[in-house]
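Renewal narrative, Specific Aim 1. Our central claim is that a sequence can be written position by position from structural information alone. The example that follows is taken directly from our test logs and has not been curated for this report. It begins with the structure tokens describing the chain, in the order in which they were read.
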């Protein structure tokens, strides 16, 4: 990328971050996504408790019909609440708190990807001890498993911005550059979108595609429409 292209991108980021209709579009899209993740998570949680062989054959320590569905249902509810909370916090000017939730949403994306790659991992996670989660499900472990899908610098960026109280997070205090905030909102949408996509992939393997895909379809369609309208979607999600 030439210096002139970098300058052009920077101007586009600044302009798109201050266009009120685009700001509101991001907020509406984030709320739609968060609500959909919560809804499908609740459906899976309930169906997983009631439907499946786990209770009858004793394979579920918790008396569930399907531990995998319960685990994914719980994870998606967490992801949905994080999405809704982060969107609300950024909209109300509580930017550091919003950034902290985005870091958590990244971890939800990691886990949902792992469950889609191997559905048995969902039950393994549900039944895991703290020591087992450290061994198998820590972010660094999942990044290594992903084969480059998840980058350490992206996770480290979120830790610096909102995961830990460090000097860099001062950029989110007081009078904040709108571009930083709006690029973090774009991060919410992208991490949540990928979480939803992984949930659909997992559901296809489990024979639950119509329920999961159908519930998430309106939000995923809205994300597609947002991506076509928002210049920040094509320029990348990381704040400058």
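The sequence written for that structure reads:
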């Amino acid at each position: 990328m030439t210096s002139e292209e970098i300058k052009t991108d920077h101007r586009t980021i600044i302009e798109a971050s201050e266009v009120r209709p685009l700001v509101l579009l991001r907020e509406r899209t984030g709320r739609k996504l968060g609500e959909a993740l919560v809804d499908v998570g609740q459906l899976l949680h309930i169906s997983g408790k009631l439907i499946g062989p786990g209770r009858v054959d004793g394979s579920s320590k918790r008396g569930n019909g399907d531990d995998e569905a319960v685990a994914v249902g719980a994870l998606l509810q967490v992801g949905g609440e994080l999405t809704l909370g982060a969107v609300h916090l950024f909209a109300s000017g509580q930017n550091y708190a919003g950034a902290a939730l985005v870091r958590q949403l990244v971890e939800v994306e990691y886990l949902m990807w792992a469950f889609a790659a191997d559905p048995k991992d969902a039950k393994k996670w549900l039944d895991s001890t703290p020591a087992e989660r450290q061994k198998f499900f820590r972010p660094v472990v999942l990044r290594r498993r992903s084969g480059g899908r998840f980058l350490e610098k992206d996770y480290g960026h979120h830790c610096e911005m909102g995961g830990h109280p460090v000097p860099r997070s001062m950029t989110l205090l007081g009078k904040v550059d709108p571009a930083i905030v709006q690029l973090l909102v774009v991060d919410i949408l992208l991490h949540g979108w990928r979480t939803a996509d992984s949930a659909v992939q997992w559901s296809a393997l489990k024979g639950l595609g119509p329920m999961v895909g159908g519930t998430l379809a309106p939000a995923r369609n809205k994300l597609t429409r947002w991506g076509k309208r928002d210049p920040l979607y094509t320029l990348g999600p990381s704040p400058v």
